Amino acid sequence: MSENLDSATVRLRVRSGEYVLCAKEGARNCEAWTSFRNVCMKNTKDCVGFVQCIACETLFRFKKGNSTSNLKRHLDNCRRVGESQQLQHSLSSSDVSESDNTLDELRDRHFRQPESSPGHADRSQTENTLDGSSSSSSQSPGTGTGAPRVYSPAPPGQEMASPRSRGGTKTKPPRQVPQHVKDKMTDACVKMCSVDLRPFSVVNGPGFKNVAQSLIEVGAKFGNVNAEEVLPHSSTISRKTCVVAEKVREKFLPEVKEALEMKSCAVDADMWSDKYTKTAYLTTTAQYVTEDFKLKSLVLFTVDFPAEQAKTDANIRKFSTTALEKLYISEADIEHVTHLTDGGANMISAYASRNRLPCTAHNLATVLRHLLDEKFLRLNAPSVMTSLEVARNIVTYIKRSGLCKLLPHSVKTMIEVRWDTVVEMLTSLCDAFPHVMQILIQKREQHRLDGWDGEIVTDLIDLLLKFKLVTKELQAKKVPTIQNVLVRYHDLLEHCKTKDEDSEVCI
After folding, report:
1. Are strands 47-53 and 59-61 parallel, antiparallel or unpaired?
2. Mean pLDDT throughout 72-79?
3. Are 474 and 465 in contact (CB under 8 A)?
4. Which residue has the higher pLDDT, 102 or 26?
5. Which of 42, 95, 260, 423 has the fewest CB atoms below 10 angstroms from its CB?
């Protein structure tokens, strides 16, 4: 409609009979439309761009194609939906017709409040919009129009309050964040990612949301304060990290010690190196089951090896024992605890005196790392090595030439020490291969495809993908996985058996 309507005008026309409430056709399975009706012109049944809750008579702007999520949120908070269901039961059980006029009469009898008497103060009528904003229009005292009072739904856990309490003070409706405020926050996040060069996904992290919620609480308590007065300096955060980590350990260490006593705890130890400084570290993590049968994981410590110290079994055992003693965990406490380590000779020797189990995921990684070793492939499967080199050279050329933006999705780079990145590289390249081939032809670089064998690459992906899925399953942290080791071992044996449809390379 070309006419610019507001909620007060719509209410008056509904009461006068110029507008009627109509059920939405073809929406019987939608929860929202069981308690909402379209506001339509009486003669033509054309919608005027509003819907009304038949329980509390709140008006919402609504046009064809809009989402019903805001209507559903209103129903979750509306404490008069129960009365609305009674109304629907009355409509279905009575002999009255289902005309819009009968619906209006029943709603008047169930929900209509008494008309305002002359001399009362103005009462505002609130119009809710789908974007969360609201506008108000007042009813002049003594007009006798009898416009219904609209009560805002109470927050969860609270009873519906009347518009005016016994003390004479008006109750405040629950506040909703208007759309223009959300837009302003979106603009602020865009500027943050652009200025600080942060990924867009940073706003999805639970840590960022926790900081945002903390800032909202500070603003609610102290008002509009300068953010620089609240946010700490980076050096302060660095110093406080160890303090916070110590508090977390103090909180969960009693659970770990109790699990050690109950023999419901296992420990995994891992040696790793920093990517840039190549500093060696030893990390020990406790996996334990609580009294309520929940599997938890807690990093007990991470110690670094000085450059002058060799990563021998004696040093690993010494550093591990010293770090555990700082947590008041003695050798006797972990004497019967199962230790999970990789297949390194130093790790096997360091934990030989304890109950040690090999890590199946590490064992699979070792097997596949030897399988994909360059010398092994050149000697036993030169065609596979040629296809891998071609794939790696194409990916390197695309990334260094800045051509990734011309592809539907990015191609992945292979990392020498991680066998699973071979699968990621080949899969990403195959998915984008038509676009890659077109780009190489346009750039007159089609010679880079020499030696590419699509059949070999497909067979290699099929072979390695099963190993990747099994490894991911066995590395799960929140569920037990030891019961799956033998099952997946059998699955991999069946997967690696020679089949009639296998290519000569796989055989």
Report:
1. antiparallel
2. 69
3. no
4. 26
5. 95
